[in-house]
Amino acid sequence: MSDVTVEKEQMATTVHVLWIPAGLGCDGDSVALTNATQPTIEEIALGALPGLPRLDIHWPLIDMDVGDDFIQYFHKAAAGELDPFVLVLEGSVANERIKPEGYWTGFGNRPGTDQPMTFSDWIDVLAPRAWAVVAVGTCATYGGIHAMQGNPTGAMGVPDYLGWSWRSSAGIPIVCVPGCPIQPDNLSETLLYLLYQATGAAPMIPLDDSLRPQWLFGRTVHEGCDRGGYYEQGQFASAYGQVECLVKLGCWGPVVKCNVPKRGWTGGVGGCPNVGGICIGCTMPGFPDKFMPFMDEPPGAKVSAAASGLYGKAITGLRSFTWRTAEKEPKWRRRSTELTTGYHPRW
């Protein structure tokens, strides 16, 4: 019996999705996912797409169960009674070891003690049993705002906590889908891919060195930006509301891996540079520290913009010759008693 056949048989049972939004965060990624359109969370949850396994999603945002009825599934998974399951983690991981008492984050209580279980406690007991672990949003992936220099919590991303070379029980690396908040379809599409992988219908999810899905984060903001042509021509906005390239206003698009300008935000509409906002690098591991102050011109932008300005002026000048030619109709398009199109009859 092949490995794929065995895996398909294993996935014939219900796949549980355990979503814990209890890290340091704002629940913005959960809210963003409700705006997904390709696919929608409803299509995933209801199995409306062909080939999906049966799903049981335990997510505070949509679950009808509350209290003990809700949290029991997480305890069952920790005890090995819920298999297989995908663990989705939202929010950065606070360092619970740096203080003598209290806790930074909590999600339900520990059985027998009624003491809160921290976010990191849940990661400790659930991650080793999970079929896959998905970190959603920049806080969970790389620490985000809470992990910036000077923070009091020692916050970090899930890969920092578990280790960047960590693998799930199925041999899958941590899957990081960054964004502050996350682009809705990026997350729903990643979850869909993992579910198809669970059924054997897709190969191992391809991730880059920062554990992001390659097909979503393989290009820069600049490569998909509608304003990229202005950069090439050396035309830069000097104030918000202008249509030219935003690099001089602080946009990090040329180096940031993100597909939002190409994909839009909801239903293909929106996205930071698309609506006049600069890219501040929120999908990158170095965010926010390495991209601050946000409104200043990025390092190297002056040199690259100056070079682009010289190149752009030369190219624009050369294109003007072609433009003047292309703006004129061919000479034979006129009223005449003779045919001057160059047509030659064959008989």
Task: Describe the structure in your own words.
It contains 13 helices and 5 strands. It has a 5-stranded parallel sheet with strand order 2-1-3-4-5, with helices on both faces. It has helices at 3-10, 28-33, 41-45, 67-78, 119-126, 137-142, 158-162, 184-198, 214-217, 221-224, 228-232, 260-263, 301-326, and strands spanning 15-20, 55-58, 85-90, 132-136, 175-177. The protein is an alpha/beta fold.
- The helical percent reads 25-40%
**Spans with pLDDT under 50 lasting ≥5 residues?**
6-11
Overall mean pLDDT = 90
Structural category is alpha/beta
Tally of extended strands? 5
Could you tell me the strand content as a percent range? Answer: 5-15%
Could you give the distance between the termini? 71 Å
Tally of DSSP helical segments: 13
Neighbour order of strands in the largest sheet: 2-1-3-4-5
Overall form: elongated
Q: Give Rg in angstroms.
A: 26 Å
Major sheet, described briefly? 5 strands, parallel
The SSE string, one letter per element, is HEHHEHEHEHHEHHHHHH
